Amino acid sequence: MFARHGIPSYLIVQPEPLTITELRLRDGDYFERQIVTAPNIFTTEASVRLR
């Protein structure tokens, strides 16, 4: 669903509340996107430079 060719992508799924965290490496940066689907739907994004 989130995977893109050539970009390492990892999904961490937690059951309660249902939380999906996507971890990606892009251009040497670590990118995290967290989606919480219950009780409210929202998305948070963070990007950090790897050194």
Structure overview:
This protein is mainly beta. The protein has one domain (9-49). Helix content is 0%, strand content 59%. The chain is built from no helices and 4 strands. The protein has a 4-stranded antiparallel sheet, with no helix packed on it. A hairpin with a 4-residue loop joins strand 1 and strand 2. It is elongated, with a radius of gyration of 12 Å. The mean pLDDT is 69.
Task: Describe the secondary-structure layout.
Elements lengths: L8 E6 L4 E8 L2 E8 L5 E8 L2
Descriptive tags:
about 50 residues, single chain
Strands, total number: 4
Task: For the largest sheet, list the strands in their spatial order.
Answer: 1-2-3-4
Question: How are helices and strands ordered from N to C?
Answer: EEEE
- Model regions low in confidence, pLDDT < 50 over at least 5 residues: none
Distance separating the two termini:
28 Å
Rg from Cα: 12 Å
Q: Roughly what percent helix?
A: under 10%
Instruction: Kindly report the average pLDDT value.
Output: 69
Structural class: mainly beta
Global shape: elongated
**What share of residues are in beta strands?**
over 45%
Largest sheet report: 4 strands, antiparallel
Count, helices: 0
Give the number of domains.
1
